[in-house]
Hints:
Elements: H1 2-8, E1 9-15, E2 25-30, E3 37-38, E4 43-48, E5 53-57, E6 62-67, E7 74-75, E8 80-87, H2 88-92, H3 98-103, E9 109-115, E10 125-130, E11 137-138, E12 143-148, E13 153-157, E14 162-167, E15 174-175, E16 180-187, H4 239-248, H5 266-278, H6 306-321, E17 324-332, H7 334-345, H8 352-366, E18 372-374, E19 381-383, E20 389-391, E21 393-395, E22 398-400, E23 403-404, H9 412-427, E24 441-445, E25 464-468, E26 472-477, E27 482-495, H10 501-516, H11 518-522
Parallel strand pairs: 20-24, 24-25
Antiparallel strand pairs: 1-8, 2-4, 2-7, 3-6, 4-5, 6-8, 9-16, 10-12, 10-15, 11-14, 12-13, 14-16, 17-27, 18-19, 20-23, 21-22, 25-27, 26-27
Helix pairs in contact: 8-10
Amino acid sequence: MIDEICTMSAIKNIELPDIGDFDEVEVIEILVNIGDTIAADESIITLESDKASMEIPTPQAGVVANINVSIGDKIKQGDVVIELENSEEDKKTPKPTAKKTNESKQLNTQIVAVNVPDIGDFDEVEVIEILTAVGDNVSEEDSIITLESDKASMEIPTPVSGKVTDINVKLGDKLSLGDLILNIETTGDSVSEKTTDTTPIAPAKPETAPLAVAPSPASKPTLDQSISTLPSSESHASPSIRKMAREIGVDLSRVTGTGQKGRILDIDLKGYVKQILTSGSGASLPKTPVIDFSKFGEVETVALSRINKLSGKHLSACWLNIPHVTQFDEVNIDQMEAFRQEQKNKGIKLTPLVFIMKAVIQALKKHPRLNASLDESEENLILKKYFNLGIAMDTPNGLVVPVIKNVEKKSLTELATELAETSAKARDGKLKPGDMQGAGFTISSLGGIGGTQFTPIVNSPEVAILGVSRAQTKPIWDGKNFIPTLTLPLALSYDHRVIDGAQGGRFMADLNSILSDIREILL
């Protein structure tokens, strides 16, 4: 009798699959109960990382025998989520295994779903170009679409070769990690190791697609219904909503969510902010007047590039949220310029910027508060032990700030080569997300264009930025005579919450000393 019972059912552990580059992701919802009968691919839990929320499906059908996780648990790949009891009928018709799929690769074609890979810390990146069409044959690593964030454009390659059967995106779509791009018909032997060995992900339900819960039309709230001024003990919201709330300074505990299980939605957050502004409880900037300039003469309207619009919003936020102070100085660079010309005569081309970069790193080592960022609470300072410099670069589409990493470990010639290569990539729109991240301090140089001084805006989350104008020869009094001296104008802007005037002044004095004596840079 016992043997008969054992043959009729079996317990199967359902483990957390590979969900990308995440460790210990938090369980925020459990979508099944013990005793529930569930179908294959039915969602069983919801996880939330710092980048996205995602529903995890079960790979097979059965009856839930046990739930091994609780809300708030941190779980990782391989952890048992639930235990399923399978019927004998299920056991007789097993699903294709990885081994069978591999064995059939040489004989059969298969449809592979190509999803958005991990492209860094970006949410909802816009599709600006589709580089293939239905029916095209593509090779592994061929670019299929181009995405553009507020920092860079990036081409997404295909991980497999084959024929494009359908395209699931269009120009202007906003994509996130795991979103389906297109499907490719490919023979088994062309499947790259980058793709899964099991049956391809179903196009209608990518496994790692971020969860998007939309409010039903019937439950769409009015402003008064969606707002609460009483703090809540906990707030359920996606990472994108939490990020937006941090950026605009909203305490989510004061917002009532109207989504599933009280989740705070985009409409709830925006409604809360709108009510605060219209009720007079907050403050907003006055709008500038709208003027019809055509009545004064001929005009032409030119659309701002996407980079212009996005960087403009970022810089506006930096200017409004950071109490700026700017200090100016002029440096005697006669010695540096003489050395630079000597190297030029030997065929070694070095721009003044590489000397400035090396000097800045030496000054940052003496003044670590300038190579830092405030944490989310704005009550702690994160001192960075690495030395990566953002270098503002002018491109046909607008200003971008790629990052030169580990500057202290590179020679002047290595920096010159890397700067030239990075500048070319920036002009061609080929910078990748990783090229734009990780700076601790930024340099904005207008030396090749001109000007005597300017006030650079601190590039948050950094706390300081150095502006460099064009060098010019001036008569400098040495006590007896006026001596023609090549001087370089510098402007240091910094966050006054972190750096006071004395600290900023000492940094500039040390930077002046280092740039004036070429030996300090070369040591």
